[in-house]
Amino acid sequence: MEQAELQPARHDRAFVKTFPCTGCGAKLSFSPGTKELRCEYCATANPIPEDGENVEELDFDTYLQALEGKMEVEEVEEVRCEKCGAEQSMAGHLFAGHCTFCGAAIVSKSYASRRIKPKSLVPFQVTRDRAAEAFRRWVRGLWLAPGDLKRYAQKDAGLAGVYLPYWTYDCETASDYAGERGDDYWTTETYTTQDAQGKSVTQTRQVKHTRWTPAAGHVEKFHDDVLVMASKTLPPQITGSVMRFDLKGLVPYQPQFVSGFQAEAYQVTLREGFPVAKQSIDEAVRALIRRDIGGDQQRIHSVSTRYSGVKFKHVLLPVWISAYRYRDKAYRFLINGQTGEVSGESPKSWWKIAAIALGVLILLALVLVSGGGR
């Protein structure tokens, strides 16, 4: 491991910076879905040069030892824009953003003391226009939302492109288990019932039984790129499936990809993230054990797992984030900046819910009436 990775690097001042257009000198922003910075004034395409770096895994235990006893503090910071000179506050969870006066990229100075910095990211593939249209489609598909909600979907000015921090963990697991294998079999059972005329009728039916036998064994598995969000700013009820990313799209970190976007620093530490990853890892181990036991059903009584060769990456992943207000209440939504998938919160129309409930009750009543008349 290179010890320099745990110290403030010499190039921290350029970790996020402003890039001038080669055509007119204006501030450039990364153009999603491309490998260039595009000027919004003269339309000049400014290619992002290849830097020759590789996306690599880092040793988990070595970094934990190096980080032992070192505290990282998040606090609101006063940042001076290097382009226009304006001073403004930057929230403690952000390390990159925009100047509210001139739009230039600004970066937290305290971020230079962060012990681990992102080495790779998935660049934005979804443009602002495409993200706004995805949100409008999502709103149109909300059956239970109030009818006048659609006009709020036209207000996309609040869309913010944000790179969220994640940890990815790799590890090998070796697990010994004990349990039972269940094999189903069927028998024919005879029973007596009454027909429509009240006469006794003898019938047969198939009854399922399960034969249980002891099972024990050993399974091994390599777990690759188990994702753990290192941000605490988003509620878990709206992250869900929208946070599915194809990590084959990871590229080495370059400040050009962040230009024009916000970026968050991690709030969940490297050490705190691994127990979360282990929950997913343990679920995968139990699924592997069930396959190893075989049969129609499985019971797992005990599992002893050893984790080895733990590696990690600190990566940034792209999300469009916004919020809208409806009748004095705020609702948030997310759009995956790589896939365009949408997830969010929405108000409910109680009269629509009541109408559906009433319709179900009427349908049940009609079924009961028709059944009783036979």
What does this structure look like?
This protein has about 375 residues and is an alpha+beta fold. The chain has one domain. About 20% of the residues lie in helices and about 35% in strands. The protein contains 5 helices and 16 strands. It has helices spanning about 60-65, 130-140, 255-260, 270-295, 350-370; strands spanning about 30, 35-40, 45, 60, 75-80, 85-90, 95-100, 105, 120, 160-195, 200-230, 250, 260-265, 295-325, 330-335, 340-345. The strands form 3 sheets. Strands 4, 7, 8, 9, 10, 11, 12, 13, 14, 15 and 16 form an 11-stranded mixed β-sheet that branches. It has a 3-stranded antiparallel β-sheet with strand order 1-2-3. A hairpin with a 5-residue loop joins strand 10 (about 160-195) and strand 11 (about 200-230). The longest helix is centred in the C-terminal third of the chain and has 24 residues, at about 270-295. The radius of gyration is 28 Å and the shape is extended. The relative contact order is 0.19. Residues about 1-15 and about 350-355 have low confidence and may be disordered.
Task: Provide a short characterization of the protein structure.
The protein is of the alpha+beta class.
